[in-house]
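From the methods appendix. Each design record in this collection lists the tokenized structure first, followed by the designed amino acid sequence. Records were kept in a plain field format so they could be parsed without special tools. The example shown here is representative of the layout used throughout.

RECORD:
FOLD TOKENS (239 positions):
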């Protein structure tokens, strides 16, 4: 059985995995989701959050796992899971990028987003007055993140969206041999309206075919298709 550690994306928290965890547990797998610093129930001040702090929080969670984990990162979490792999590759069985940014060494997530053929989320971003973070316009959240999700899940999620610290996304990430030693898989979401599906193809164009798969969902398969997502994660672990 596999051990999964699930990492949320921008403005989200561990709460977004609520429907996936029961499916993983029901099949006998270990699975946890954590709040990154300043997300969800974590009270770290926004001004203290860095990409390195994200990575070290993930490493700390992996150190308490009974075995190397399948480390799953959604959306912006492609960056912190990659940084964690550079710090502690021996703690990771496999990296799984779920419609996530795959870092180019030396580039920041902001640079990666700007390199996309479109930035559909940009019009929904609202920068906080102090310049430390951004939030998502609630009126646009469903269209950007949850357009195919059940109404109850949409209401649940929008009520919980929080501020996203900007510094971690503006920090370049350098990756080396430690990161390269960890197996990885990418799950594309073909109806994604946050990270363009064609950009997800671009980010994985050099990957072996067997290391890329797809789900026909929005940016939030954890609400749209939790069973299918859990099954895919289990297949990734087995593969």
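DESIGN:
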């Amino acid at each position: 059985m596999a051990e999964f550690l699930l990492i949320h994306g921008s403005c989200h928290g561990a709460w977004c995995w609520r429907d996936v965890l029961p499916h993983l547990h029901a099949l006998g797998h270990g699975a946890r989701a954590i709040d990154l610093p300043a997300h969800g129930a974590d009270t770290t001040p926004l001004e203290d959050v860095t990409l390195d702090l994200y990575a070290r929080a993930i490493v700390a969670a992996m150190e308490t796992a009974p075995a190397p984990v399948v480390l799953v990162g959604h959306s912006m979490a492609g960056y912190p899971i990659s940084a964690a792999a550079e710090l502690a590759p021996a703690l990771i069985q496999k990296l799984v990028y779920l419609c996530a940014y795959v870092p180019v060494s030396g580039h920041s997530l902001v640079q990666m987003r700007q390199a996309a053929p479109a930035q559909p989320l940009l019009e929904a971003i609202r920068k906080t007055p102090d310049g430390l973070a951004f939030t998502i316009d609630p009126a646009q959240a469903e269209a950007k993140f949850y357009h195919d999700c059940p109404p109850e899940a949409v209401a649940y999620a929008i009520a919980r969206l929080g501020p996203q610290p900007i510094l971690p996304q503006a920090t370049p990430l350098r990756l080396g041999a430690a990161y390269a030693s960890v197996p990885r898989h990418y799950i594309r979401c073909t109806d994604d309206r946050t990270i363009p599906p064609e950009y997800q193809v671009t980010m994985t164009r050099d990957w072996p075919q067997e290391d890329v798969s797809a789900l026909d969902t929005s940016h939030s398969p954890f609400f749209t298709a939790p069973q299918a997502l859990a099954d895919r994660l289990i297949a990734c672990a087995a593969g």
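APPENDIX NOTE: The CA atoms of residues 86 and 125 lie 30 Å apart.
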